[in-house]
Every structure is written in C-alpha cells, then in structure tokens.
Amino acid sequence: MSGKSAGLSPGELSTLLEISRVITSSLPLRNMFETIHAYLSDILTYEIGSLYINEKSRFNLKAGVGVEDMALTNLSNRAGTNYLLKKIKGTGRPWRSSQVFKLEQIKKHPFYVQVLEPMSILYTAGAPIRNGHQILGSIHLGRKPEDGDFSDKDMQILEMVANLLSPAIRNIKIKKISWQLDGLAVSGSDRKAKNNSTAPSNGAGGDRQMQLLGSVSSVMAKELRNPLSGLKMSFYSLARNFTSGVMAQQDLEQMDCSIKKMEKTIRFLLCLSGDIHLQREWVDINDLMDEVVRTLGPIMDPDVVIIKDYSSLPNVYVDREKMHTVFGNVIENALDAMPGGGRLRIITTENQGRVYVILEDNGMGVDAKIKENIFDPFISNKSSGVGLGLTICERIVGSHGGKIKLRSNGGKGTAVCIDMPVDAS
C-alpha cells in the first residue's frame, strides 16, 4: 500500500484543522487524545492508538484508544521492548514497523508475540513529538493484517498530528515543573526545614505540643467511642422499624449524617493519638480514586464537574483504607470550596518509582494568612472546620514515606499534590 504522497484532500485538511482546535483546548491529555482519535479515525484506517511521553529518558504510555485497559497496561509495561518506539527515539523521525524489520522478523519479536498479536495487530506506525531537537514523546497507530501496511500519505498525516501535539505536550511538562515553584505549602520535614529560622515552635516545642495533642486525642476518642456505639445501635434499630412520614425520614437521614461525622472525628483523633499502624496491600490508585469519588457522590453538588486525567500506573503498596481517608478528605475540602459548583481535576502520574496524585479545584482558594500553616492542627480554611483533616492527611501520607503539598491562590482555586513511593522500601 505504500507509495508516493498524493497530497491531502480538502476533507483531510478540514479534519486536521479540527484536530488542531482540540489540541489547543484545555482538555486533559487523555480526553484530548480520545477526541483526536474520533477525528483521525475518519481519515486513517487503524485499530489502536497510543501516546507516549518522554519522562527523564523513559517513554511512558500516557493515553491509548481502541483496546481494553488490560491490553493498555500490557502495552505500557512492555514499552521497553517496543522496537518501533526504540527506533523513533533513536532517530527522531517517523517509522513504519515494516521499515524496521521484515514481517517474518516482526512475527518472531517478543513485543509482537506478547503485546501486538493478542490484539490482532500486525502493522504499526509512529511519529515523534518534537520540540526542536528534543523528543517530547511519540504517537503510534496499529493495524490488523487485513488492513495492510501504512502508506506514505498515512505517515504524512501522522507526522502532521505529531507536530500539532508538540506545544500541548510542552505546556503539560511546564505545568508539572510549576509544582516546584512559588505558592507551595509543604508538609513534614520539608516544612520544618523551610520554617526553621522563623518558627521555633516546629522544633522540640512543636514535638511536645503534638505529644500532648496525641494524649488528649486518645482520651477523647475513647470517651466518645462507647456512647457512639450505643447511639448507632439505637439508631439502626429505629431505622429498621420505621415505616412512613416524610419529616421523620428527614430526621433519620440527618441523624445518620451526624453519626458518620462523629465517626470521622473519632478516626481523626485516633490517628493523632499514637503511631499509625499500616495494613498495606497492593492498590490500583486509579481504582481507589474512582471508589472515593463514588463514595462522595451523595454529597457532591450536581454542578461540580469531575475531570479524570489518569495515567497508567503500577500498583502501590499502601494501606487502602487510610489512603481512602486522605483522598476523601482532600476532595471534600475541594467540594466545600466550590459551593456553587465548579471543576475538580484528578491527575495521576508516575515517575522514577513514585506515584503522584494531584487534586485541583477552581474554588475559593486558601486564605494567604493560614496557607503556610495549613497542615498544623486546628488550622482550618472553613468557618465550621475543626482543622484536623490535613494534619491527619500529613501523618498518613508521611507514614507511607510520601509527601503532601498544597498550592493555592485566593479566589483562583487550590491544588494538592500527594506523592508516594510505589513500594514500602
């Protein structure tokens, strides 16, 4: 099927124009790639598409279309054996797989046998996403045997799309770097080191304060837990025997909500009262984020839009329940900051053995007067807040060997970044 480029038709040029508009929009990377696929598949025949981003000399799969999640995971995990990706990375120019190897060689290659053949893909083509001489990433397409090889014109279109993607990928990289710039409130030892010269309370005095707080919290939790257990038993007995009455139903719902808030407060107090004992397991963070969002669904304003910009991640060795508490608390704070609705973006990514979760809202932001101390106990941005939520989040994340950072501008939203090691070593 390969031959001389015949030039682009008006329809193809129109489609490329639409793709350029998608790329210059503010869509998250995964949604952007899915939308590009919706247009590109009108002018190119292919079965699957994948997008790799170059992160510290390693090409990581960031988005894919046309296959199930399990196949995408396999495609990501075996990126190091992808002969087409290696060729593009080494030369910085577009390639068809049939230019790299003969078909007989391709069919014997481990990447074909383990990844492509199970998806019924034989022919692949890719083009680098470049910023001058720097390769930012690579876009790949795959075809079934019956669709034949990619033509020169197909390659021309693919290279154009890769060129259009370059500024978008460059901006995403700049945005990630911005986490290391101004406006960050950091947790743990980083915060203590940062404030050491101006805040002696973060030294031995601060440690004694936390010990005293822990002792008081332990007593308070124990005093509250027993009467709360009796209250729960009475409430659920009443709820089971309840039959009718709108006002009574509302009262029961309010009681249920109050009990859950009390239970949450007790869990917070217990987390402050001593060492955090982790019950670790291997957890898919993307699944956990979906679970947290579902749990918070009943209290979520219908005008809040959730944008999930998930990357393909390795499983992480964490305490699932405790990390559920962390993510849930941060998302609740975001929802409280957007009482009239808004946008919450959930970003997950991985780099050099650490997983990053960024929760970004466009709400009211954190008051500048308290931002530097936002992780201290009893510091709250909410009029009705106790001020323990982020303190607990800091302790839990720290117990996993992770860090939590907050960036906020008054009236322009807040972003919280949580990063953790993949394993417990």
Automatic annotation (TrEMBL):
User: What GO CC annotations are associated with the protein?
Assistant: plasma membrane
What EC number(s) has UniProt assigned to this enzyme? Answer: 2.7.13.3
Q: Which PROSITE patterns match?
A: HIS_KIN
Q: Which residues form a coiled coil?
A: none
Q: Which residues form the Histidine kinase domain?
A: 219-424
Which UniProt keywords are listed?
Kinase, Phosphoprotein, Transferase, Two-component regulatory system
Region Disordered: list its residue ranges: 189-208
Top-rank taxon: Bacteria
Spell out the CDD domains in the cross-references.
HATPase (cd00075), HisKA (cd00082)
The name on file for this protein is histidine kinase
Give the organism, scientific name: Desulfotruncus arcticus DSM 17038
Species classification: Bacteria, Bacillati, Bacillota, Clostridia, Eubacteriales
